[in-house]
């Protein structure tokens, strides 16, 4: 009589995809996220964005969270022209930096707030639906992220399918004073199956579309990612490890974007070849 | 950058994971709680016990959020639920299913009852998953009563 396993918005069987469940009212959870990007067209490149988060169930339908965001970057001559740069690096390089030297730095990025409202419960309604919003502010960046989260459970809840439609409105100040305004929109899809108590295994995909301007003004590129995910959970803690590989099928919409494509993959200041997400959650309501 | 230490972290966490189920009562205690004063004999199938006063107790488990919930269903000779008890529960949230007020909803239910969450069994907000799966489990047990009793 085996039945289900379920994930909340905080705890997800996916690395990047949110599910439509939220924490019960009055319960807390600490979560650490490490989003790692590795490998560009040449040289050495590693970038790790970390989030330290406290989540709280304000009601049984509304979950709020606060984040502290920090990152570590290590790059060396990874650009197409042999200079050092890439996501998390280029925007921090000022005129005093030797472009052919190594960049390595750990830094504070921003703080952010998150709210998730569950419209439909994935356990009791035919489909789960949640709405998400996250404003983020830091010394160099301001960002507003939103998501529409859909979830459908199958096989007595042992199989979870989820789709996120995510948009961002970003403003980033570069070290040289220039300002970049962007508005990516991503569609992510994943499925995860309960293979035995505590363990889920699945996959997730990402279709990423980058635009300049705050309101999806001009298309830049579309990039595609896919990879596996494994999730372990018990009452004291849970963790999720996911890997996404950039598929060699990028679509670019201008010459600048095409100039940072190699073997069908786009790099530049946006992407790397591989992405890894590690999440660790510790609920505080364990009795 | 070598990925090995990063990828090894989850394995290390699992290795140091604290173990131990939260056991609230034994099978014998559950049977006595459901049919006080009765004696019990094996019912011919694993997890099924006959009560001397008539009726049976079925020890069953359903998977909650992460791990199994072990529970007992007592069914009278007439095929209606006498009571249910939660023996083991190992989830972060949802312990409210142990509350007598929630469990008492099952009393008197039979194979002809819907036994569905939000229809004839009220949900507990924040414990939806456990409520649903225990309800589903009880429905299956009650539905099998005739065959279980006939062993």
Automatic annotation (TrEMBL), chain A:
This is Uncharacterized protein. It comes from Bradyrhizobium zhanjiangense. It holds the Pfam family DUF6662. The lineage of its organism: Bacteria, Pseudomonadati, Pseudomonadota, Alphaproteobacteria, Hyphomicrobiales. InterPro entries: DUF6662.
TrEMBL record, chain B:
Residues 64-145 form the FMN-binding domain. Residues 1-21 form the signal peptide. One of its GO terms (cellular component) is membrane. Pfam families: FMN_bind. One of its GO terms (molecular function) is FMN binding. It comes from the Bacteria. InterPro entries: FMN-bd. Keywords: Signal. This is FMN-binding protein.
